[in-house]
Amino acid sequence: MAIFPQTSHFVGLNQPIGQEVSLKGLKLEGTLPVEVQGAFFRAVPDPHFPPKFDDDNVLSGDGMVSRVAFNADGTVDYDIAYVRTARWLAEDAAGRARFGRYRNIFTDDADVQSTDRTVANTTPVWHAGRLLMAKEDGKPYRVDPNTLETLGSYDFDGALKSETMTAHVRIDAQTGEMFVYGYEADGVAGKQVSYFIVDKTGKLIREQWFEAPYCAMMHDFAITQNYALFPIYPTTCDLERLKAGGDHWVHEMETDSWLGVMPRYGDVSEMRWFKGPKGVSAYHFMNAFEDENGIIHFDQCLSNTNAFPFIREASGIHMAPWDVKGALTRWSVDPKGDATAVTETIVGPPGDFPVIPATMQGQPNPYGWMLSMDPDMKGPPLAGGPVGAMFNCALRLDFVNGAPQAGHVVDALPLPPGMSFNEPVHVPSNDPAHLGWLVTVVDRAAGDSFEHEVWVLDGGALHKGPVARAVIPTRLRPQVHGWWVPQAQLDAAKA
Fold first, then answer.
1. pLDDT (tens digit, 9 = 90+) per residue, 436-459?
2. Is residue 347 part of a domain?
3. CA-to-CA distance for 408 and 349, rounded, in angstroms?
4. 365 domain residue, yes or no
5. Is 332 contained in some domain?
């Protein structure tokens, strides 16, 4: 193993592995629900070579696509392979890192500054029978879901004009349409945002551009039945700072946040901007929906500052980890009213990686799941991921008629010390009365190393622990996001 910087981004659970692995027929303990047949795809950053600069971070890692396949015979297969991006190929040919600081093209080797530098490491997106590995700083890469072979950069058959595509698409389960955007669409540090719609066959049918209030990290967005929502938080980019070799992102505590709202099939000229609190930040959103009065409710994992320590450090924000406060927070706006600011309500505990059934996207969700920290945990959390601490508690929350229910955390599964959850995916049940299943990878400290299992949890009875589990007998790095694909869809795409 090459020598990596001995920082939190490259040690412990974040230690680079750099191995492509294929393990077949792993033993499954317990009873596998009949619905859990298919593939759990995971995006895993893992650097191919030590970074050019020692202060690099885990989010710069080359994208690896991981597949946990649940087979009809009750066994599990595990495969992981690098996404062979243009960046990966350029560095592989040279045998060393050639791209510089995180999302700063001006620090790359001169002869690769025109090379697509995305690492495609954030989300495996499945739509219309295609698997795309996406990261928000470039176009996605298409991957064969059966072989994990990289098929190349994907621009929707030449239709996509934006230079970037988000890793957080939203798919309407009723129409099959995929709603997508890309920020810095016009190039690094630009304020232009592309908003586009892909029909159920995978054809890009409309792309529009609008200007954001400032160049911000727009990691996620949301849709309702009638609207598209574009949150803006003051983690900002500046071109002159980049040219001077500085950080892509700096968080500005005294700058306003915003929520852009437009009809999802409308024109960007109809965008309305609602002002939010100063200095806040969110990476992931549970859902957005309209109530019976036409009020939009938007639920997000909101923090009082940027959650990533490396961004706070670059911003001169010196806060102890326990001073970074957050909660599942609802912003409500009337898209047809006179108010110009959001109304804020706390609807859940601190945490992240919220999950709802795919059929509830953009509709009222009476329940949902998220990861959090066990308030009664004994000892520190497992160190890992870009925040530096992994979650150790899975929660189910209930909501009634769009309003928070008293005691809304109704089920929880805390892990013992030295264990952590990766983001789960939801698998629907064939029984309409059942809440479905959650599939997740669990890490466990084992001396100087780690052990890993994939768990299947009953979404309506988290506290009972896994109904099925399988040991993955190889070292894993923390994932970013994942996607569940039923076996029937995989078979149809292969045919």
1. 999 999 999 999 899 999 999 999
2. yes
3. 9
4. yes
5. yes
